[in-house]
Each structure stands twice: as C-alpha cells, then as structure tokens.
Amino acid sequence: MSSFFKYFSDLFKGVKSLLKGMAVTNRYFFSPGEIVTEQYPENRNKMKMYDRFKGEVIMIHNEHNQHHCTGCGICETSCPNGSIEIISKRIDLPDGKKERVIDKHIYHLGMCTFCGLCVKNCPSHALAFGQRFEHAVYDRTKLNKILNHPGSSIIKDIEE
Amino acid sequence: MNKDINAPAKQAEEVEYHVNMGPQHPSTHGVLRLCLTLEGEIIEKLEPHCGYIHRGIEKMCEKDTYQQIIHLSDRTDYVAAHMNNHAVCLLVENALQIEVPERVKYIRTIMDEMTRIQSHLLWWGCYGMDLGGMTCFFYGFRDREKILDIWEETTGARFLQSYYTPGGLMQDIHPNFQKRVKEFLKYFSKKLSDFDNILSNNVIFLERSRGVGYLSREDAINYGITGPSGRGSGFACDVRKRFPYSMYDKVDFKEILRDEGDTLARYQVRMDEMRESMHIIEQLIDNIPAGDYSAKMKPVIKLPEGEYYQRVETARGELGIYCISDGNKTPYRWKFRSPCFSNLSVLDRISRKCKIADLIAISGSLDLIIPDIDR
Predict the structure, then answer these.
(1) How far is the alpha carbon of B7 from chain A, nearest alpha carbon, in Å?
(2) Quick one: A61 and A118 in the same domain?
(3) Domain map of chain B by residue range?
(4) Secondary structure element (H or E) that encloses residue A96, with its range
(5) How do residues B296-333 score in pLDDT, each as one tens digit?
C-alpha cells in the first residue's frame, strides 16, 4: 500500500518540479525584460567597442603623417611568436652623419595572439591597439600589414 | 572464416564490442576520443585517447621568457585563463621574492572568483544541454556574457585576456569596473534561484544524476581528483584553504564539501561554489586599496637556479606548475600539472558497469577541458 502512495507522490512531485521549470521559461517568454541578443550586421554603424579592446596593433600617426617609432626592435624581441618584423634603413643626414630609421614595421596579424607585450614594452609609446575587429579576408597574405604609413617620418622633438 | 556453425547461440551474445565516442562527439566539448568496450549497453572498459589537440605548450614555454609564458598559459585551460596566469605570476614572484602591491592582490582575487563563476556558468549551461535541457545553455551563456563584458572593458579581451603579468597587472582596472561588478552581483544573486528551478530540482535531471558515477573518497585521493569533482567525494582539497595565496587567507569563505560522491554531488558543489565566489567578491570589491597596479620589475626576468612549484586552485582543481630554472631568462623545464588530466584518469574507474547514456552525465560532471588535458 505504501509503495502505491509513494508512486503517486513521486509522480506529483515530479510534475511539480517540471512545472516550476516551465514557469521560469514562461516568465521570460512573456516578460523578456531586457533583450540581450544583438543584431550584429545590422547594428554595425552604432556599434562601439571598448577603448581597451584589442582588435589589432596599430602605429599612432599624427596629422603630419609622423609617428614615434625609432625602430629599436623591442617589440620584435618581446613578441612571443614572431608576429613583428622590423626592417630599418640608414639615411644620410644633412650634416654628413648617418642615422638608422625605420623602413618597414611589418605586422603579421594572422600570427598575433594579442598578448599585448609589444604595446606594453614600447619605450616610445608608438604602438597601440585598434578597435577594428573584422579581419576576415580571402587571402592570408593580406593579413601581413605594414604599420608605418607610406612616406611617414619620426616625430623629432616633443612639440605637444 | 571457419566459424563453428554448431556452436551454441549463447557465445554470439557474449561477444563484446567496441565503440568510439569522439573525437568529435558533441558532449565531450573538444577532441577527446573515448574507446568504449561494451557489453550490450553496459560499459566494461573505457580508454581515453588524448593528443588530438596537443600543441606542445610545455616545450614552447621553454623557449619563451617568463612574461611570454603568460599568453601560452592562457591557452591550456582557456575557460579559466586568469587563474592559469595567476599560477605563472605567483611562481615568478615567489622565486624572486617580490612582494606585489595590495591592490594587485585584491584585483587578482576578484578576477579569479569572477573566472570561477563564469567557468561554472559555462559548465552549467553545457551540462544542462548534454542532459537534454537546451534552455540551460541559453541562460548560462546569457549571464556569462555579462562577466565577459566587464572583462572586455578592463582587459581588452573576452576570453584569452593575458591580463596578469609577473609583478602585477598589464593595466589598471577600468573606472567602471567596481560599479559594474556590483551590478552583476545584484543581478546574478536573483538568477541562481532560476537555475535551481530549471535544472537542480528538475525530476528528470535528478533521476539521471543521483547515484550515477560514484567516486569514493579513497579513489579521489588515489587518483588525485581535485577541485569540485574531488570535493563532491568529501576530499578536502581546496588550495585556497590549504595553501592560501593572494587574499584568500584574509577573506571569509567556506570550502564546499559533499560526501555523496555521485554526479549530483559534484553538480551541487559547483552550484554552491558560485555562491561562495559571489560572497568573496562582495567582501573585496568595495575595499580595493589605492596604489600601483604593478610592482617594479626588471625588463628581463631571470629566476635564480633551482626548482620551483606553485599551485593554484582553478575552476577545475589544482593547477600546479613545476619549473626548473638554470638561471637564464627562459626556463629549463616547464611542466603543467593540469587538473583535467588527473580528473580524466578516473573516468574509467567510475564509469565501469554504467550504461553508455550515463557516460555523458559522468564525463560532464568532471568538467573536462580538452586542451588542458593535451596541452
């Protein structure tokens, strides 16, 4: 007899627990509160990433197409997987001396793990993280970027 | 083919057969191959085959400097990246006997506990989904998203943050950080009752998990099962209590222990741990002291010659790092004692004589992260 009652009490308890779970989902169904889903390709224009978001490494240029990079190579040595290559050149100064300046700052986005060591270790604060994150391309050679803009030069003295 | 056709029919029934579960089975959440020897539906033997996502991280660590190892340690147990970073940082700091600022200790402890909450949330969602409750997956990921959003604002990344660095942090916390964490705690404390209603008290879930996959306390100790899986069997193995680091010796929290040792006990330990983590964050979040976010470190870190071991309680158990240094800027040998690898070793023991359908519940309750097993 007791097993008979236990059978029905278990049945009712089970159905009750299922209804409790259903109540939770029903509550969200009829009163969603806030909608957390974002409609991604539609909201591209309004979307704003956080300032610290690590989308890609960029070199900061001012309005005169000048940057702070001296070509010291600290970012190259601190990079754990060789995503950064520095190619420097020697130029003749008007007073006859030679100076080593940066020719190409090559950045392999496809290899980068966004650890942030290059940006943190740069002594002249030439590098920063950009917020662009749509990096998909059809050819991976397009992920090899040259960070210094064409024709750019180094900011000689601190004007700002 | 010279089968004895007159052999009794019984022999044909007794033949055991093999089934591969994985390497791309959806419930292993990664590339783990379990070779099952079955008799009917009953599991007679289980052999895990690892190595499908082996990347040689330990060897790669040996050519990296100690700052660079941080980003590789992210990629072992990627759901709890902050805690892996913490282990590397503590190892270097203890070897060099550097005292990090109080502010760093507070922030690291808060970040670790947030990691624990989000890791358990991800596990809760996936575990519910494995056992047939798709809603759990959405609710778990919805709330986890809020933590990831807070991290994105402070660390710049959602998943593999590389936020800790030997001696401190990469950057200071964002001015909004404290406000948003408090908002999250307020929001999340209400949601936990929803989780209980939808899964913890659900009769189907309880019937599938109670008494399944029993792990005794002796076995937990013998196999080195740490973390919530070990504590579900009554093995008091919480590194935060036994070998406190950062702020864990100053905050008040309970070590969740259960004696049942079955799948349900491991589940309940994790659910209670989320509440304890919230309790820890509540104690710390208002009292973060002012100060530097990093100790003064040399640009090239060289550990003195010797052997070092550092353990940290991650969301899955004890993560140990063993390092031999020969005085150079890179380690001579670097070894991760990852919790998932040890936890996987007991899967054969606890799933024998279980039904094959129960294996999903058992392996899910161990909370295995496959890249942490293979490294």
Answers:
(1) 45
(2) yes
(3) 14-374
(4) none
(5) 888 888 888 889 999 998 888 899 999 999 888 889 99
